[in-house]
Structure formats: C-alpha cells, structure tokens
Amino acid sequence: MSVDATAQNGAPGRSGSPVPDPDRQQTVAPEATHQSRFTALLASSFGRNLGLVIALVLLCVVGLATAGDRFGTFDNAMTILRLASVIGVISVGMTFVISGGGIDLSVGAIVALGSVWATTVATQAMAADVHWIVMVFTAVLVGAACGLVNGVLIAYGRIAPFIVTLAMLAAARGLAEIIAKRRTQIITDRDFIDFFNGNVMGVPVLVIMFALAAVVGWLLLNRTTFGRRTLAVGGNPEAARLAGIKVQRQTAYLYILLGVACGIAAVMIMARTTTGSSTHGQLYELDSIAAVVIGGTLLSGGRGTIVGTVFGVLIFTTLTNVFTLNDLDTSTQAVAKGAIIIAAVLLQQRVAGRSHKT
Amino acid sequence: MTRGTGASPLLVMADIVKRFPGVVALRGVDLEVRPGEVHCLLGQNGAGKSTLIKVLAGVHSPDEGRISWNGNDIQLSHPQAAMDLGIATIYQELDLVEGLTVAENIYLGHEKTRFGFSRRAEASRATAALLARLGHPEISPSAEVGSLSAAGQQIVSMARALSRDARLIVMDEPSAVLDSGEVQRLFKVIRDLTADGVAVIYISHRLEEIRTIGDRVTVLKDGATVATGLEARETPTAEIIRLMTGRAIEYVFPPRPGVPDGDPLLSVVGLARAGEFSDISFDVRPGEVLGLAGLVGAGRSEIVETVFGARKADRGTVSVAGRTLRPGSVDAAVRAGVGLCPEERKSQALLLGDSVARNISLASLARFGRAGFLGSDGERRAAEEQVKALDVRPGKVDAEMRTLSGGNQQKVVLARWLLRDCKVLLLDEPTRGVDVGARSEIYALVRRLADSGVAVVVVSSEIEEVLGLSDRVLVIGEGSLLHEGPSPEIDEHGVLDIIMRGDAA
C-alpha cells in the first residue's frame, strides 16, 4: 500500500484527478517538503556522514575541555592521524570485504606475518643489496597471498568467511611466530625507516599513505565497475549471478584486496615501531570491523562508504587519544568503544528501517 | 464405501473471505468436511488452496466468514489454537528440523517433560508406536531427520500430526515427492486413519489419486468455491476440468503477427537434470514466443534456469545461433545474448536498496566502464532511455528499487536485458505480483520484443497467460515434455487435461 502511495506521489501529474492537484500542492507542499527534506537528509549518505562529523566534533570538544593545552595542538592532531593511519588502511580494505557480503577476522594476523616475513635476516639482506623496496614488496606479497587463500576458500571452497578467516587468524600468526622464533626483528635499514617516518610538507608519510588509500578506495568503490560489482555481490549475490557477474571471482578479489591493504599496513607498522614482530596487529580485526560498521557500511553487505569508514577510524583514534591524555586506562577505553559500536549500529538500523518502510 | 455419509460435519467453513493488501485471496469459500472422510481440494495455481489451508491452520485469520468445529463456532487466531483443536497441517515444504532426531521433531513444541527435563525414553517409545501405526516401524526414533528420504520425512511429518491427536489432517500435495510404491503406502496410512475417524483434506493435482483415495471433492476457482461435495469416484473428468477453468480474464493479449521463417535462434536438445526434468528439447526462432505451461513444481523454472546456465545440465545441450553454450555457465549464456527474468524477482533479480539506474545497468557494467571507471553520465542516460521506452513509473532513475510496484520492478528487469541487446529472453512468471493494468503492458512489451526479432520463452502458472501470449506452447508435467503445438490450437481445458492425465498425449 505504501508502495502505491509513493509511486503516485512521485508522479502527481499522472494521477487521474487534475482539478484538486494544484490546490493540494499549494497548501500541503511547504510543510510536507520540509518534513521529507529533513528525513531524506538523515537517510542520505551525507546525513549519515553528518552524524559522524558531529560525533567527531563532540569528541574534540571533550578533548579540548579536558586536556585543552595538550589536545588542541597541530602535533597532537598529527599524532592522532599517525595512529589512525595503520588501522585506517586496513579498514578501507575491510569496507570492500564487508560491503561485498563478507568478513575478515585475519587482518591482524596477516599484518603480523607480513611484518615478520619482510624483516627476516634473509629479506633484510636482500634489501640491503638491492633496495628497501624489497621489504615493501615482501610484505604486500605475503598479504596478497593470505588474501588469495582466504578468497579462494571462501568463494570456490564455499566455506563461511567467518570460519576461513578465523583459521587464517590462527595460522598466519602461528606462522609468524615460527618464522620470527617469537623474537622481535629489528629493522636495520635506516633509509626505510626514515622514508616512512618522514614528513612531506609537515604531513607524516604514514598519514599521506592513509589518505591515498582512502582516495583510491573511494574511487574504486564509487566510480568503477569493480566497486559496483562489489556492492551487487554483497547486496544480492543471486541477482548478481543471474545478471552475469562472476560472483566467485569478485569475492576472491575482495579478500586479495584486503590482503594487499594488510601488507601495506604491515609496512607502516614496521616503520612506526622499526621492528617486525609476530605480536603486531593484535585485535586489528575488531578495530577495523568496528570502524567500518560505525561508518555506516552495512554488515550484511550491499552498501559501503569509504568516507564513513575514515570517520569511524578517526572517531576511535581520537577517543583513544582523549582518554590517554586524561590518563584513563585502556579498560575504560574498551568499555567506551563497545558502547559507541552499539549506539552506532542502533542508529544505523533506525535509518535503514525508515528507508525500508517508505 | 463413502465414509461418514450422513454423519454431522466435523468442520464447516462458510463464506471465508481473506484480503491481502491489493488482492482478495479468498472471496467466499465454503468447505464441509465429515469425520472419517478424505476430502479432496482441487483448483488451479492461485485458486486459493494454500490460503485456505493457512486459514485452517491458524496462520492467517479470515476477514469474514464462519468456521465451526463439531458444531461450535471457533476462532483460529494462531497456529497453536488450530493444533489444540486437533487440526494438523502437513505442508508441501516439510517443516521439519533436519538436525534433530525423528523423536525430537515429532514432539517439537510439545515435548514430553517432567520438571522441565525431557523424557527422552518415553518420547522415543511413543514415537516408535506412532511410526508402527503408520506402517513404518523401520524408521528409528533416534535417526536424524536430515538423513531420511523425502518419503521418510513425509512419514515423520504425519507422525507429528498424529502425536497431537489430530482429528483433521491437511495434506498439501503429499504425493509430489513420493514414487508410486510410496504413494500406495501413503494411501494405506490414510485408510487406516480414516477408519479411526480422522478426517483428511487431501490436495493433489493428480486426478487418478483423487479417484483412488478421495471420498468427496471441493473445487476452488479464483478464491471461491465453485462446487462442493462432488463424488470423488464418479464425477467425470471433463466436468471437474470445466469447473476449474474458465476464469474471467480481464486482460487483453496482443495479436500474434505470425512467426517469420528462419533458423532457430535457441536450440535445446535432450536437456536433463536428475530429479528435476528429463529429455527436454525445443527450438525457438527469432520473433517467436514459446510458452512453457505446467503446474507449479512441474520443472519449468528449473528448465529455463538450466538453459540460462544457472543450473548445470546433467545431459543435453543448449545452443544459441548454432553455437553450443558451455553448460552451467551464466557468463557464457549472457555473452551469447541470453537474458533471464527469474521467477523470484526480489530475491533473484533486484538490488532492492539500489537505484533504478543501477539495477538496469547491472548486466551491462562493462559497457559503461572505461578502463574500469564508470562515467556516470552514460549509464544514467542509457537507463533513462530504457525507463522512457518501457514507461517505468515513477520515471526517475534515482528512485530506490523497493519503492516501485511489482509491474514496474518487472519492467526494470526487462530493461536490464534490453540494454544488453539480448537475442534470447527467458521470462519466468513475468506477471507474478503484477496488477492487471501493468499486465497488459508487459504482454504488449513481450510481443514488441518478439517482433523486433528476439526469441522469447515465457513460463507461467497461468495457463491462459501462456496460451494467450505465445505462438507455440510446450506442456510440462513432472519434468517431462507432454505436448508441443501451436498455442491457438489448444485451450485451457486441453492443457489441464494433458497435465492431469499425466502422460504424453
């Protein structure tokens, strides 16, 4: 019934009674459009992002109020962004997997494995002979390979993503421990560390990498056939299949893409800590999934927003920063994070529910 | 030996009316069932049988009408109320939990307990007794239901009905999943039940079964009872078919201009899939509309999905313009110019949360991508062209898919394939959930497509629709091709007759 009503409202000129129409439009229109404009705004992607902006601004206000002198500096802003950058790159990749209808729990473990493999004695020796780019390639290749294994098992082996990536979570970290023999591997290549810890016009390279990942991710998701296929596969895999889209291949690509993002994140964390370690990336899966979900990407797939994800990452990182500046412990942070996730998802459902009804 | 003659009726349903938003599913159904009889319910797809048994099971509450049980007026406001009275329904899609055992399934919802602990031994004993009563003592109460055959599951379903001391058991096409030996055993069970005074409402499309097991017949058409209390054994077949057919048609079919001569565009040879259909062969020429008629479950959707590659054929070939398609590959079919508008529009065809434009371009994304990048203008313009050509309303390509009516959603799916310049279009139930006005538009559209040289295959449960729309018709019954011929040379009676006799004419 509501469908009919909307259809008619959508094309008032078509309805069979032309006489009362202009009248009704004149009297009812202002209020009605006002109302609908507001709800439409809330439901639009801009509206959802507006909510995230408000949340971030509120957090900053709290930060300024409680630790104004230390919070409100350029250096602190860069600290927040630097902290956000590693999880940010992973979250951009995670946005693709989740909006494609999947999930990946193994990102943290892949980061650890990538960082360890790229910092072994052998890899570092080769890097010393050739160029530090060898380490970057190694980390990215390891990430892509893990993503390929995930993707193939999920898409062609038809095993639930939750199970496959849970297995990868265990296996990749275990392999990292075996390779590193549970020791932290120090990076000796100063050029590598200097390059990634450097600044370009005052902005840290790590932050630039995050920004690039976000821009590339946004273009890929919103402006390419790849992105469109991702959303179609996540929204209705059967419809996508019957429209001639290669659903399995697309699914596999998504996990490989996220694997590559994990490889890049591994390079970033190697630079930040100047080490490769099997303990890198602990709980990154939770942080990245949380950021993606509060950003407004549907956990069930079919809708994804890179802008939302970036805000999600920034909100969590700023929260951590504010808490740290106020000397609150990590346990309190965890509780606050949990509350934010639930609040965001509740809000998301309300909005989704509203657009279902109209 | 009609049982229960003269006995006071167990169940009386009078003037039952049930409306759903936009449709009247039942517009005055009368049904009277006596204790110990097998009462057969006949009617075409969409006549209202399913809705009626759901009313009886307490799933739907009727908007008007009276139901009385043993002479007392009753309200069946929820499924539990029906069960408490002793009305048990065995649905066509069996509603068993496959991971639980036979005994657990039978006592699901009314477990034998003491102080909150389930009494497994007793449930097991009672289950064994029930199964023995049904003539199947070989089924173990501790077997997992998922491991049983379809027939075995049917028996479990029936045991569950009995476990609730059912006085009336509704069986919705119970024989559909059974082979002939199993059907005979089912009949024996039914005879034992009726001898104990249990009444059975039996729904089947097989006239021969109705003659064997039934006592009386009620015929539904368009949501109303057209005949009740017919003798199941003596009423002539012609009479029954006459009652079931002749629905008032409110829509017009476009004229058939005649199919131009030419080589077949789509050729299907010896197509088969185990358990679904076998040895299906047909050709479709450009400009021709081929209809696939048959009842729900006859295998028509499976056939078109296999032609499209969405299901992989066990045997047989599909070729388009002389080139054989790789079996089981949607991609190959789409590249060869085949498009499918699937049966379940919402779950199989549409991205409901996305815009009309995105739904239209879904099968042609590569065309709009330049090195993978989508220029939004080209896509939008193409979608707008299609929306205008097919008169999709509202005519806004940004509208969210779920806000469109059924008919307009169907047009969007058609537009998707038109945009791809399809040469072969497979339409599965193109007018399901489409209102009367939009139906004629879709019919005209299908004919226009054929006139432009497209080979069209139409599947529909509405026999009149298939006949009215197509140039040539195939009648499918239980996975076999029963009849092939020009559509104008056969009518609804003829088709139903072929289906209900169940063998090749």
UniProtKB/TrEMBL annotation, chain A:
Bilayer disposition of the protein: Multi-pass membrane protein
Primary location: membrane
Protein's recorded name: ABC transporter permease
Any single Pfam family the record assigns to this protein: BPD_transp_2
CDD domains per UniProt: TM_PBP1_transp_AraH_like
Repressor recorded as keyword: no
Keyword match Nucleotide-binding: no
Any one GO molecular function term: transmembrane transporter activity
Residues that span the membrane, as ranges: 50-68, 80-99, 105-123, 130-153, 159-180, 200-221, 252-271
Ranges where the record places region Disordered: 1-30
Organism phylogeny: Bacteria, Bacillati, Actinomycetota, Actinomycetes, Micrococcales
Organism: Pedococcus bigeumensis
Cellular location(s): Cell membrane
Keyword annotations of the record: Cell membrane, Membrane, Transmembrane, Transmembrane helix
GO (cellular component) term, any one: plasma membrane
